[in-house]
């Protein structure tokens, strides 16, 4: 998502360079932390991929990713080219949740945390919940 979404969005408000650098550094550090945790420290039994915890987490991750992609698609197509102004998104989970894109990403990372069962994945899921939860609340207001 971090690589594809920016290429798909239309022109909008420019992102401050400092914000971009902080986001990039955070993504690099988090990716390193998750990868190192899974490759060096996490120990899984041989049947882990058949474990209900892994399967439930994987399904949660997959559903969250699908919600996130679909919600982003709705958001990208809210306005016609050159059109400005605020619009309320309709369709998909936006009919039930104000920040469907945020909900999808939160579900995605909690699914990942459940599938991995590491403290690092859980801590990132919680950070995602608090950060995106507050953004979702702002959008709702």
Per-chain topology:
Elements: H1 5-8, H2 17-41, H3 52-76, H4 100-116, H5 119-140
Helix pairs in contact: 3-4, 4-5
Overall geometry comes to globular
- State the total count of DSSP E strands: 0
Radius of gyration: 17 Å
SSE ordering: HHHHH
Count the helices. How many? 5
Structural class by SSE content = mainly alpha
Strand content: under 5%
Unreliable residue stretches: none
Mean pLDDT: 89
Question: How much helix is in the residues?
Answer: 55-70%
GO molecular function, one term: 3-oxo-5-alpha-steroid 4-dehydrogenase activity
Family: Belongs to the steroid 5-alpha reductase family.
Pfam family, one: Steroid_dh
InterPro entries: 3-oxo-5_a-steroid_4-DH_C, SRD5A/TECR
Summarize the structure.
With 141 residues, the chain is an all-alpha fold. Helices cover 66% and strands 0% of the residues. Belongs to the steroid 5-alpha reductase family.
